Amino acid sequence: MACLEGMAPFHVPDAGKDVQTWYKVFGDLTGSQVALIALHGGPGIHSSYMAPLADLASHHNIPVVLYDQVGCGNSTRLAHKNGDHTFWTVELFERELDNLVQHLGIKQFDLLGHSWGGMLGSVYAAKKPPGLRKLVIVSSPASLQTWLQSVYSLLERIPEKEREDFKRYEAEGNFDAPEYKAACMLFYTRHLCRYDPWPEELDASMNALEEDATVYGTMYGPSEITCNGVLKTWTAIPTAHQITSPTLLINGEFDEAQEVAVAPFFEKIPKVKWITLANCSHTAMWEDREKFTQVVSTFLTSQA
């Protein structure tokens, strides 16, 4: 299978330095199949963990574009913008996606967004960008309010000690406390990835936050369960009805994004299907790789 890596120059006047977006293409963008562009989560959790999407290229001849959003992975890091709420906006990442599509010369494309990537994909699709054909939203909330309802309901299911440790240190704002981190990790093993041990690619993406949390910390917060950043008031619910592309919603049985988080997309988007994958959490692409690939490929290659 052909693979191509490259850098797309991205003009960001207030970045204070030249910015480039790293990308990797699996398959042939010049063929007859519509390309799938993948939007990773976080924000700021680079694309390594989305490696299973390459199966769509190798098994189903669907060209796949992975890329690291600005501020993380192999793309330009902007640590000097840490905490800058006016710089790190959803609109910045919409412009980066537009720029990448133009750089690659893609005329028609599908989008798959995971977690934060699905949030980004939903507001992007609502603006009806030229060339967008289909949308896949994976484990993403329709608003941060519904996301927090979901994760806090799941938090009540972890053992009392870890639950009380989490609540105590969150209230104190002590997000570096070992007990807070231990409670978060217990939550993650149940609702982020149920694999044990985690895949190396997922470990690499998550560990990158320890090295550089500029984007994640500024836009989201200190953990998946605590949101105190730019996105805390984010919602796609008012514009979801404007998404005219056929849309597939995917979440896992034990996902951080439970029904309460996903349902508004299903209620508002006109042409939508929703599949919940059994025995999966937030990373179904790893936990049931074969089923995930089959569900996505069937949707992308169908005539609907």
UniProtKB/TrEMBL annotation:
A cellular component term from Gene Ontology for this protein is: membrane
- Listed GO MF terms: peptidase activity
SUPFAM superfamilies per record: alpha/beta-Hydrolases
Q: Give the family, as the similarity comment puts it.
A: Belongs to the peptidase S33 family.
Show the Pfam families listed in the entry: Abhydrolase_1
GO terms for biological process?
proteolysis
Q: What is this protein called?
A: Proline-specific peptidase
* Domain of life from the UniProt record: Eukaryota
Alphabetized, the UniProt keywords read: Hydrolase
Record lineage = Eukaryota, Fungi, Dikarya, Ascomycota, Pezizomycotina
